[in-house]
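dumping this here so i dont lose it
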């Protein structure tokens, strides 16, 4: 499941809610230029965080490009590629070719903005070196299945969020009426305005396919995508969490339909005059249009603190009189060992095992929690608590580096 992140806060919400992957953009070259978006240092930090939790992070470069911008695009990609960026979502056919040639270890996902509507287009992109296509949102489940089976390329489909009236990536209405191009990331949203005497005849209801998700999974869809890089972290957390719960039930328990309670909860979170299943099971229909003003209904509580996931780490500490303190951390196949200050003989009150354990468990804002803690210590030692804290911080950083080194690259 792929979740949106318009800001760093939304990224962390998506990870904590159980997303398998997240997509986000920089300050330029993405189709959501009015989102908060990321600086390059923020994106690099997010890549590391994603990889610590075995998640993936994709960069959106899903606008039509100008030749003069290519060097600047490379300046954006290069540091993220080195940090281990998992993939890029691209619209422009020239940029697709450039990235495949210059960044061979980087997955290229062809954006829905590229308007891929059939097997031949998808097969051509696979021949070029693309890893995945996000077909036009106007396709049926049967057409999506054909692309997956006959083009033999990964397929990603939208399952929730806002929809466009136009064919994916083919709208020029914003440019003509609003002076801003949706294909350059600055859609003015003219389809959300009233026409024909006040009717909202172009405004689409939001997409929601949770009731029909099993049909997409059985069609071979590889990635399920939630729209929403302009939406709040509360929206991202709650919508991602509901889909995560259903997918776990589907794979673990064979449950094919969500409970009515979960459907009602999802519908109440955020919708534009109701929700619909898009084009997956019908060509089109009047019930896909709001007609009335596309007001939003939302039941999302704002400013709520959501649970933060941590990696359970095994910790072993050795504190012997006259010897350097040792701390060993392990997580799966990864481990780190660091040495601290020499433990001295206590001149008055010795340091107890409970005090050492309390300091070591203060993992704070780190991605780890010490689930298994084994401490060996002489009964009459003393070591400043500040030095135990420093040893803990140093070993945590060493473990992080051991995990992340698997992902980093050189050009």
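and the seq i came up w/
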């Amino acid at each position: 499941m792929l979740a949106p992140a318009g800001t760093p806060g939304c990224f962390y919400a998506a990870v904590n809610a159980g997303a398998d992957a997240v997509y986000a953009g920089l300050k330029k070259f993405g189709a959501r230029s009015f989102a908060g978006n990321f600086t390059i240092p923020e994106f690099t930090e997010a890549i590391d965080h994603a990889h610590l939790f075995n998640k993936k992070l994709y960069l959106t470069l899903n606008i039509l490009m100008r030749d003069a911008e290519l060097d600047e695009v490379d300046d954006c990609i290069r540091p993220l590629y080195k940090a281990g960026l998992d993939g890029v979502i691209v619209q422009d056919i020239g940029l697709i070719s450039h990235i495949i040639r210059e960044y061979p270890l980087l997955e290229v996902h062809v954006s829905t903005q590229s308007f891929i509507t059939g097997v031949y287009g998808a097969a051509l992109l696979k021949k070029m070196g693309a890893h995945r296509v996000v077909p036009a949102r106007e396709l049926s489940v049967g057409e999506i299945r054909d692309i997956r089976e006959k083009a033999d390329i990964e397929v990603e489909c939208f399952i929730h969020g806002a929809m466009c009236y136009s064919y994916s990536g083919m709208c020029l209405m914003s440019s003509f009426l609003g002076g801003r191009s949706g294909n350059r990331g600055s859609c003015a949203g003219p389809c959300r305005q009233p026409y024909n005497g006040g009717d909202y005849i172009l405004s689409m209801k939001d997409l929601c396919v949770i009731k029909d998700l099993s049909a997409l999974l059985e069609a071979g869809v590889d990635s399920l995508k939630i729209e929403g890089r302009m939406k709040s972290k509360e929206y991202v957390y709650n919508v991602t969490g509901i889909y995560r719960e259903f997918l776990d039930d589907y794979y673990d328990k064979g449950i094919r339909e969500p409970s009515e309670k979960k459907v009602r909860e999802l519908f109440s979170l955020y919708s534009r005059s109701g929700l619909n299943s898009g084009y997956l099971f019908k060509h089109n229909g009047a019930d896909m249009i709001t007609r009335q003003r596309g007001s939003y209904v939302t039941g999302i509580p704002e400013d709520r603190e959501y649970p933060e996931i941590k990696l359970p780490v095994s910790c072993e500490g050795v504190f012997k009189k006259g010897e350097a303190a040792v701390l060993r951390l392990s997580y799966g196949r990864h481990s780190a060992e660091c040495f601290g200050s020499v433990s001295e003989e206590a001149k008055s009150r010795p340091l107890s095992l409970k005090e050492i354990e309390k300091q070591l468990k203060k993992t704070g804002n780190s991605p780890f929690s010490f689930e298994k803690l084994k401490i060996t210590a002489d009964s009459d030692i003393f070591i400043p608590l500040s030095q135990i804290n420093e040893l803990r911080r140093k070993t945590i950083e060493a473990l992080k580096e051991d995990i992340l080194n698997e992902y980093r690259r050189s050009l």
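DSSP finds twelve helices and 20 strands in the chain.
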